[in-house]
Design a protein that fits this description.
The structure holds two protein chains of two kinds. By secondary structure, chain A is mostly helical. Helix content of chain A is 60%, strand content 0%. In chain B, strands 14-26-25-24-15-22-23 form a seven-stranded mixed β-sheet, sandwiched between helices. The chains are: A mainly alpha, B alpha+beta.
């Protein structure tokens, strides 16, 4: 059962990373325009060089 | 939030992503920027944007325009927000967009108060995400306990669960605690009181049991409750937010402006800045922005939105006109007699507001369910507590454990999802068909309807006339008519302009308010009003041509709105009675009723008579669906059990109605009635399903056999069945 002392913190840490990513995405308003973002990935405008 | 701090101007631009330049801008420059006057912030509606290419084209074109700082398309809301130098106006942007082939409308950014809605939505989504994270982690630990972890291991798992679950309940449960507290303060038992009680009791008992190394802890149940209930809340919020933002968009479409004469020159002004006594110019095709008296010019005006008359009315010097009427043929100058809140348009809207507030409050199915559900749950839980106190001879811990288990198991997870899941799925379906549900309870009310009352002009008909007796005229007459008609933008003339190859005419001129005059083979020919060409008017909508001393009559009927036949057939097939009531004269109304197969019709009805008809039907025990578009319909629209108006209707009518028809086609109304009935059936089924789960689970809990595993199973199974059932809508 000693393995639990590694597994539990590990699982909590990974879950916490997921939660932190979600909070970050919320705060930076990434859920405001889902269909727009889904389409923007198809735009060819900045394929050759990054957006300045 | 660092961007906002670095660049204070961005703070209020909630709906829009900060421009990339601002994010990298050094703070000194940002401060200098802040000292400058605020940028113009424009909002445009882009109804036709739908793909990645649209985004590139629109943003590219707008950014290339002079003075534009940033532009961003929101494809979900079909909106473009533009940040630009103060001198840039919305009409410049609309012209730019028209140049690249996109239709755009100016939206009143002040009216679009979406930031508040967005904030609430984000808030709920955040709590939902946190609850989901906790649910997954606590469940992982709980599975270990259920599969046989014992003694110290079990206690450790319980402690870790508590560390995750309790902060989660405190954070994610806030919407429920707040509304439960609000309900308790006014002495009511809402649905949120048992929810909050279950959340608090489950967490408290589990914590106590954990400190006593007890066997059972309900941490997983508490966070699961939070998650499923928040899901219902979020769905509910999203449906309403989408409907609200679209309705606001409709309201904002007509940005009210008028052309005011100041020292002989025309100046564009907002309606709010116009004073009584000002002179206002209204061009042909324009809508009267204010009430006034004509001081210059003669024309014909279309009053169909106010009275339902399909025939244009002559307007000359000294005549009073009301806001909302449309000027057809000649330019008019008005002396303003009333503006804004005093104008007849607004007085009518106020009347509607009064009718609205008097509308009998509809108790939704969910409210009815909650009204007997909450007391029952509390009673059951207290009864269980009392019984086990007596049975065990005062074992407080055991009795509280059982009453908490009863509360948790009966907690209305499925009940909370039962209505929002169905409404979300149904209104999404209707939105794709072109119907916008403005009011959450509209679907339930629509399901009850047994009588449908239609307005004529602008609702069943498009308000664009179609000639009916062309076959009675010789090709020569038609040629002359087409030539004359080409000279005017009057709706009757436009309908005649394309009926034949125009004959040669000379000296074509429009006599505003009367008709068109020209010379054909050295003779004067006239097309226009009966008295002007020298004849008696006939009963139906008609225009008159005098040619070689003979008067030819051209009669018209309104174009039937596409899908009207289909909608009426579908409604009849569902066993609903159809009525037609119009403010127009008998001739056109009888004709339309015949064409659509409506036997029950009334013509020449005043707004008050329409209202009386709807009230009478309601008092006779019928549930009335009113479909109308004009100002003369608004009172009836707001008195009806549920109401629908087309998007072309006046603001007041759209505000008064529960459902807005976005496209021109009327056929979705038939679908709406069908889907509403189906949705109501699904809601009732959902109530049945959650009741069935409770009937099985509650006795187990009352007898004290409920384990956290049983509670988790009952809760998740019932929520999932209810959600799946909601998706069965066709």
């Amino acid at each position: 059962m000693e393995i639990l002392s590694i597994l539990i913190p590990a699982s909590l840490l990974l879950g916490g990373c997921g939660l932190a990513a979600f909070v970050w995405a919320m705060k930076t308003k990434q859920f405001d325009d889902p269909s727009g973002d889904a389409n923007r990935i198809l735009m060819k405008d900045w394929d050759d060089h990054p957006k300045p | 939030m660092t961007q906002a701090a670095a660049h204070p101007l961005q703070v209020e631009h909630g709906g829009m992503a900060a421009c990339p330049a601002c994010a990298v801008m050094p703070s000194a420059q940002a401060l200098a920027e802040a000292a400058k006057p605020l940028h113009a912030r424009l909002m445009l509606s882009l109804p036709t944007a739908h793909c990645a290419a649209c985004i590139s084209a629109v943003e590219g074109a707008v950014l290339a325009a002079d003075g534009v700082i940033s532009a961003r398309v929101n494809l979900t809301l079909k909106r473009l927000s533009v940040e630009a130098e103060p001198q840039v106006t919305a009409s410049d942007m609309i012209a730019v967009l028209r140049g690249v082939g996109y239709e755009a409308h100016e939206l009143d950014a002040g009216l679009l108060n979406t930031t508040e809605t967005d904030r609430q939505g984000r808030d709920l989504l955040m709590r939902l995400g946190v609850a989901f994270f906790s649910m997954m982690n606590v469940m992982l630990l709980s599975v270990a306990v259920w599969s046989g972890a014992e003694a110290a291991t079990r206690d450790m798992f319980h402690w870790i669960s508590a560390m995750i679950a309790i902060p989660t309940v405190v954070f994610a449960g806030q919407p429920f605690f707040k509304s439960a507290w609000a309900a308790l303060r006014v002495g009511r038992l809402g649905m949120d009181v048992p929810i909050s009680l279950a959340l608090v009791l489950a967490s408290a008992i589990s914590l106590y049991e954990t400190t006593q190394s007890g066997v059972h802890a309900y941490f997983d149940a508490a966070v699961m409750l939070c998650f499923f209930l928040l899901l219902g809340r979020y769905l509910d919020h999203r449906t309403r937010a989408v409907a609200r933002s679209a309705a606001e968009e409709l309201a904002a479409l007509e940005v009210p402006r008028a052309r005011v004469l100041v020292d002989g020159t025309e100046v564009e002004r907002a309606i709010s800045e116009i004073a009584v006594g000002d002179l206002v110019r209204v061009r042909p095709g324009g809508r009267m922005p204010v009430d006034g008296v004509i001081t210059e010019g003669a024309s014909e005006i279309d009053r169909s939105l106010l009275t339902g008359e399909s025939l244009p009315v002559f307007a000359g010097l000294g005549m009073a006109v009301s806001a909302g009427e449309v000027n057809l043929t000649g330019p008019l100058t008005l002396r303003v007699t009333a503006t804004g809140a005093d104008s007849s348009l607004h007085r009518m809207a106020d009347l509607v507001a009064v009718a609205e507030s008097a509308r009998s409050k509809y108790t939704t199915l969910a409210e009815r369910a909650a009204s007997w559900y909450s007391p029952l749950v509390h009673l059951l839980s207290f009864a269980a507590f009392g019984f086990w106190m007596w049975r065990t001879g005062g074992d407080f811990r055991h009795a509280v454990n059982i009453s908490a288990a009863v509360l948790i198991i009966t907690c209305p997870c499925a009940l909370g999802l039962a209505v929002p899941a169905v409404v979300t799925s149904a209104s999404g379906k209707l939105f794709r068909k072109g119907l916008l549900i403005k009011d959450g309870t509209a679907l339930e009310r629509l399901a009850q309807v047994d009588v449908v009352v239609f307005d004529k002009t602008g609702t069943l008909t498009l308000g664009t006339p179609k000639p009916t007796n062309l076959a009675d005229h010789s090709p020569q007459v038609l040629g002359v008519v087409a030539a004359l008609a080409a000279g005017s933008s009057h709706p009757l003339a436009r309908a005649l302009a394309l009926v034949a190859t125009p004959a040669r005419v000379e000296d074509l001129r429009e006599v505003a308010g009367y008709g068109i005059e020209a010379r054909h083979m050295c003779q004067v020919v006239r097309l226009g009003r009966a008295e002007w060409v020298g004849t008696q008017a006939v009963d139906v909508t008609a225009t008159y041509l005098s040619l070689d001393g003979v008067v030819h009559v051209f009669t018209f009927a309104d174009h039937i709105r596409p899908g009207a036949e289909a909608a009426i057939a579908a409604l009849k097939a569902q066993g609903k009675a159809i009525k037609l009531i119009s403010g127009d004269t008998t001739g056109p109304v009888a004709d339309l009723a015949l064409r659509l197969g409506i036997t029950d019709w009334t013509a020449g009805a005043l707004p008050a008579e329409k209202l009386a008809l709807v009230r009478g039907l309601t008092e006779a025990g019928h549930f009335v669906l009113m479909v109308g578009d004009g100002l003369n319909d608004t009172a009836a629209l707001s008195a009806a059990h549920v109401s629908i108006s087309p998007a072309t209707a006046l603001d007041a009518a759209r505000t008064a109605s529960d459902i807005v028809l976005l496209g021109q086609n009327m056929a979705p109304i038939g679908d709406a009635a069908r889907i509403a009935r189906q949705a109501k059936r699904r809601i009732l089924e959902n109530f049945g399903l959650s009741a069935a789960y409770n009937i099985v689970a509650v006795p187990i809990a009352l007898l004290g056999f409920a384990t956290p595993l049983a509670a988790a199973l009952a809760m998740s199974l019932s929520s999932i069945t209810v959600s799946l059932n909601s998706l069965r809508l066709k």
